[in-house]
Amino acid sequence: MSKDITDRQKELLKFIVTQIREYSMPPSISEMAKFLQVKSKNAVAKLLDSLEEQGFIKTSGKARGIEVLNSLGDSLVKGLVAVPVMGNVQAGSPHLAEEHIEDWINLPQTMVKGRRDVFLLRVRGDSMINAGIFENDLVIVRPTKEVKNNDIVVALLHDEATVKRFIQIKNRSYLKAENPDYKNIYPKEEWMVQGKVVGVIRNLE
User: Fold this and answer.
1) Which position among 39, 127, 145, 170 bears the catalytic label?
2) What's the CATH number for 7-68?
3) Which class does domain 80-201 fall in?
4) Which of 7, 9, 50, 139 has the fewest CB atoms inside 10 Å of its own CB, making it the most exposed?
């Protein structure tokens, strides 16, 4: 980072980067003014001008028209989509799913096929290992209630979520484990599909 950048400029730049990563869009002038605790939008504009002159950002003149650049002047977020990590989901017995956002991860648009409604869940348990889903992996989930036989889904049973393979036989459906050490789940009461697993990000630690 340039030696000429001031602490105030650095503070604003980090805020812009964080906002883009978390919300897939840069902050507005008003949001930046609120973050910096200044009343004057001109003060924000001067900081942005300085950052642009030093090659840290590029502005388009439009609302939220800010791109963060690398040392080559290329956009750091081009081709990426910020996807939220929505807590844990059990690949074993059903387990309560944390509904708050734990983190955001930038994924290539090709991985999520350009969709912006997908989310990530961290897997706990090993009931899906034969489907290539292991402990601490992240599954990419597309929200939908419309799934087909053999789809891997996130199902909600009594406010608890689990990853399993959806099996439909005639008018009967159940949730199949992909590990012989686990029993399949035959829900006796109302349950619902939260989404379809469309990808897996392997935990290599």
Assistant:
1) 127
2) 1.10.10.10
3) mainly beta
4) 7
